[in-house]
Amino acid sequence: MNATFALLPGDGIGPEIVAQARLVLETVARSYGHVFTFTDHLVGGIAIDETGDPLPASTLEACRAADAILLGAVGGPRWSDPSAKTRPEAGLLRLRSELGLYANLRPVVTHDQLIDASPLRPEIVRGTDILFVRELTSGIYFGPSHESDDGTVVSDGMQYSIPEIERIIRVAGDAARRRSGKVTSVDKANVLAVSRLWRTTADRIMAEEYPELEFETQLVDAMAMHLLSRPRDFDVVVTGNLFGDILSDEASMLPGSLGLLPSASLGDNPPGLYEPIHGSAPDIAGTGRANPLATISSAAMALRHSLDLDAEADAVDRAVGQVLDDGTRTSDIARGGPAVTTAEMGAAVAAAIT
Ligand code: IPM
Ligand code: MG
Questions:
Q1: Residue 120 Cα, ligand 1 centroid: separation in angstroms?
Q2: Which of 141, 156, 245, 280 to mutate to test the pocket of ligand 1 (most atoms within 8 A of CB)?
Q3: Is 92 in the pocket of ligand 1 (CB under 6 A)?
Q4: What's the pTM value of the predicted model, to 2 decimals?
Q5: CATH homologous superfamily for 129-253?
Q6: 110-121: per-residue pLDDT in tens?
Q7: 218-247 burial string, b = 16+ CB within 10 Å, else e?
Q8: pLDDT confidence of 33, banded at 50, 70, 90?
Q9: Domain over 1-111+261-354 is classified CATH 3.40.718.10
């Protein structure tokens, strides 16, 4: 097949990790007889530096025209001045919103080979296999903001509409049907009105449309604890934008590193956006220490969800498992042992594609 990938390397370690995911995709194309075309576009801080806009119109246009978008990371101390007119993150949020990518899938799976990389005890984390479904284009990230005239009081509003909640609950229900059949919806319904709407809507959709699935609700504070004490009890976890952001970073400690976790952001129409859940890690940018596996696994999700290339996606996932079996480790998962560079890890995965 012919497919186009819009590459948005962004800031910090972004360019280094996207380069390795591209190498793996090129290897897949060669091995399976596809023609993948890659184009590079500006997003985030580097886009502010070069154009004044964290999401230039040319980038958005190229994304709309692509079959899939692969993004590295945005942000860094260079652009974190609180009084700055625009921030790198605003470009990413606008991209998600403009493309209607409301469903963010964040799988968290522990690899047996890395069980010691987790700060948690092996008997707790072994066998964890959770799919976080994070609502991505609404909630407090996109609610109304206000600032008092004298600037001493500021507010960000959390809001959800019933249709927004219904569609994300359906994404979770559909995913659970293909998995172990359990959905956990996370909210703060004991305090927030918006969470009470979330809860009644989730209860209704699950009862009416997914009666065969196991369904429970959890308060977000308790969920933060359960994730660390009994992660194996969860299958699909669905929640709003902010809670999903926080819980997915927390959950990255189950497999042991933020550098392992991929994500897919999908809407009702193509293209999908694929990105690691970690940030731009400016502290290690340019040192060759970044772990490209989260971005490589995100590329695998692109093959699966945007191109329908399941065999090819499986091949990438297998190759990642293979290099971990072989003991290849970047420094974030090496536990002080020998570590390879970002490029060596990418080359090892590419070489393991069969
Ligand atoms: C994520 C990131 C982003 C978010 C930032 C970079 C805007 O933390 O994808 O989880 O908060 O959604
Ligand atoms: Mg985050």
A1: 24
A2: 245
A3: yes
A4: 0.96
A5: Isopropylmalate Dehydrogenase (3.40.718.10)
A6: 999 999 889 999
A7: bbbeebbeebeeebeebbbbbbbbbbbbeb
A8: very high
A9: yes
